[in-house]
Write a structure and sequence with these properties.
Blueprint: E1 2-5, E2 11-14, E3 17-22, E4 29-35, E5 45-46, E6 49-51, H1 58-70, E7 72-83, E8 96-107, E9 115-122, H2 136-148, E10 155-156
Parallel strand pairs: 3-8, 7-10
Antiparallel strand pairs: 1-2, 3-6, 4-5, 4-9, 7-8
């Protein structure tokens, strides 16, 4: 939560905006990162992503996060999902998450201080939900369902 003081002196706890990149290559592999041990949900797999910076659109943010966490430059294909439920599983800060489908266009895999592993997983051999950070793997599985049988987009939440 973000703790804010307003002009009138009032205080509130507000929600963060996060962005995540769902990247599937032409070999039906999903790009996942393992979060560094010092982070919340450290040692667990998720998609490249993070907090939106000030003066940044969600599209700019997801491409920045993809590059920072993997070394890959990407191109947005489309907005897949917005998750704004305050009751997300494994999520105590009530982040509002924008999830984009992104295509890698260049770059090489490079670790940073937030990532201990970058790996391409076959879409039918993803880590278990217990190995996943937050609810990101459930979102990836929903995207894989979309690849098999498209449905209306963007998805707002899902069965939470």
């Amino acid at each position: 939560m973000i703790h804010c003081t307003f002009e009138n002196g009032g205080k509130a706890s507000l929600r963060h905006v996060t962005v995540n990149a769902f990247v599937v290559n032409n070999k039906n592999q999903v790009l996942l990162i393992k979060r560094a041990p010092h982070l919340i949900n450290g040692g667990k797999y998720g998609t490249p992503g993070g907090f939106l910076d000030r003066d940044e659109t969600t599209e700019e943010g997801v491409l920045r996060e993809l590059f920072e966490e993997t070394g890959y430059k990407g191109k947005i294909k489309f907005l897949f999902q917005i998750v704004d439920s305050p009751k997300r599983p494994k999520e105590d800060r009530q982040n509002i998450d924008f999830r984009y489908v992104v295509e890698v266009v260049s770059g090489d895999s490079v670790l940073n201080k937030e990532v201990s592993e970058i790996k391409w997983f076959d879409i039918d051999k993803l880590p278990s939900d217990e190995e996943g950070a937050f609810d990101l793997l459930q979102g990836v599985k929903l995207y894989i369902e979309y690849l098999k049988k498209p449905f209306a987009l963007p998805v707002i939440n899902w069965n939470i």
